[in-house]
Amino acid sequence: MSLRYELAKTMARYFILHLEQELLKPKEVTEYVTLEGENFLDVTKKMINLLEKKFPDVREKKPKFNYFKHWWTNEFFFRQDRFKPYMETTFKTQNQIQLFKILDILSPDDTKRKQLAASMTYTIKKFRERGRNVSFDLIFSAEARQLPIFELIIKIEKIPYIRAKRIIYEQNIFMQRTAYNVIDEELRISLQKTDQILKSILPEKIVNELKENGKVEPELLKSVSVMFCDLEGFTKLSSTLSPENLLFELDESYTHFDRIIKMMRLEKLKTIGDSYMCVAGLNKDLKVHAVDSILAAIRIQEFLRKYEKSKIKKGLPSWKVRIGIHSGSVVAGILGKNRFNYDLWGDTVNVAQRMESSSVGGKVNISLETKNLAEEFFDFEERGNIFVKGKGEMEQFFVVGIKKELSLDGKGKTPNNNFKNIYKKILLS
Fold this sequence. Notes:
Layout: H1 3-23, H2 27-30, H3 40-54, H4 67-73, H5 92-106, H6 110-129, H7 136-144, H8 147-156, H9 161-201, H10 204-213, E1 219-232, H11 234-238, H12 243-263, E2 267-272, E3 275-280, H13 289-313, E4 320-335, E5 341-345, H14 347-357, E6 364-367, H15 368-374, E7 378-388, E8 392-402, H16 417-428
Parallel strand pairs: 4-6
Antiparallel strand pairs: 1-3, 1-4, 2-3, 4-5, 6-8, 7-8
Helix pairs in contact: 1-3, 1-5, 5-6, 6-9, 7-9, 8-9, 12-13, 13-15
C-alpha cells in the first residue's frame, strides 16, 4: 500500500467523523441550499459515499478525535465575536476544500488543482456579494492552523512522519499560493475599476500624481483655453419635460460632449446643472490648445444641430448651446480631502464664463486672446467691443469655421490634410 493512499485514507477517516457530525446538527443550521443550488445535507452524504468508495477500508479503524472541531475551536483561531460555535454552523466551503485535499493527496493532478482555483474564485466572489469579508489573511490563518493538527494525526496513526509531512506541506504551499493568486487577481481588478473611476472624474496626470504622492500640489499653468457650454432655453424646457426625460436628454447631450472633448484632448472639469466646463492645455502643450478647444466647440455645435433636427422631426422639444472660450493663465489644484474636486481658478476662468454668457445659441464666442492663438486655422466674425462684467469692454469674435482651404470640401466643419500638416508642424516645433 502506498504512502499517499495510507495518508489520504487516514485523513478521510478523520474527515468522515466531522461530516457525520454535520448531519447531526440542528435542522435550522443544516436545512439550506448551497451556492450551487443543492441541499447541504445531500451534498454532505455524497461526500461520505465518495470517500467510502475511494477507500473501501476507511472504516476499519476509528479516528481518535474530530480534527475539524478541534481546528475550529482552537483558542488561538476561534473568536466568539467573529465565528459561531461548531454545532451552530456548517462548513460547506471548507468541506469541499478538505475533500479536495484528501483526493489531491491520493493523486495530485494539475487539472483538478486548476479547477480548485476556479472554484475558489467563484466562491469568494459570491461571499463578497453577500457581504462576507473573505481576505487572504483569513484563508492563510485557516490553512496554517491546520498543519499542526495534521502533523498530530500523522504521529498518532504512526504514518512515516518525514515523508508524510513533506506531502502535507507541499499541498499547504499550493493552497496558500492559490488563495493568494485568487485574492491578488480580485484586488488587481478592483484597482483597475478604481483607476477607471478616478480617470473619469480627474485628469490622468492628476490621478497619477495622487497615486504616487497621495496629494496634488497647486500648479500655475501659464496658458490654457477654458471653455464653457450652457444650454439655452433649459429652464423653459425643464417645465415641459418630466424629470426622467429631462435627465435622459441632458445625459445624452453631455455624453456626446464627453466623447468630443476626449477626442480633441481636452479635459472635462465639471457640470453644474446645465453648464459644462472643460479645458485644453493641461498637458502644458502651449501651442495648439486654443485650436483644440475651438475644434471641439465646432463639433459640439454640429452634433447639436443634428440633434435639434431629429427632435423637430419627431415633434419633440430640443435645445441649443452657447459656447464661450478664453485663453490665459490659471491656477489648477484639488480642493477637499473626502469628495475632492479638481478645479481651475483665476481671471481666465471668469472671462471664459463671460464669453459664454455673451454668446448666442448655436454659436462659439471667443476672446481676442483665443483668436490670436488660433487665427491661422479659422475664420472669425468680429463682434466689436462688448461689455464684460468686472472687465469692462472686451473685443469678442464668433467662430465662423475652419478656413476654406483647410477644411474638407471647403465647408469649414472638418479639418483636411492641409490643416493636419500645419497642426503637426506647430505641435512638433
